């Protein structure tokens, strides 16, 4: 049995995170599979998508912590 360590703390965030992933891929010009399996991505492509999402999440957190001012 696999130990899944990347469980979401807020399960309702799944749809928003998937949307972010699709937006990131589109912005970066990476083609994601509509079936959900993306094992054909290079490490560089997957890392670019993850980095893009991380930057966006940090930006959202900074805006939230500053009271939405920017």
UniProtKB/TrEMBL annotation:
Protein known as: Alpha/beta-type small acid-soluble spore protein
Gene Ontology biological process: DNA topological change
GO terms for MF: double-stranded DNA binding
Function description: SASP are bound to spore DNA. They are double-stranded DNA-binding proteins that cause DNA to change to an a-like conformation. They protect the DNA backbone from chemical and enzymatic cleavage and are thus involved in dormant spore's high resistance to UV light.
Pfam entry (one): SASP
Gene3D superfamilies for this protein: Small, acid-soluble spore protein, alpha/beta type-like
């Amino acid at each position: 049995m696999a130990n899944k360590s990347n469980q979401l703390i807020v399960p309702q965030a799944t749809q928003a995170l998937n949307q972010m992933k699709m937006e990131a891929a589109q912005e970066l010009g990476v083609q994601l599979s509509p079936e959900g399996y993306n094992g054909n991505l290079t490490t560089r492509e997957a890392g670019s998508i993850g980095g893009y999402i991380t930057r966006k999440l940090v930006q959202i957190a900074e805006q939230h912590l500053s009271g939405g001012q920017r």
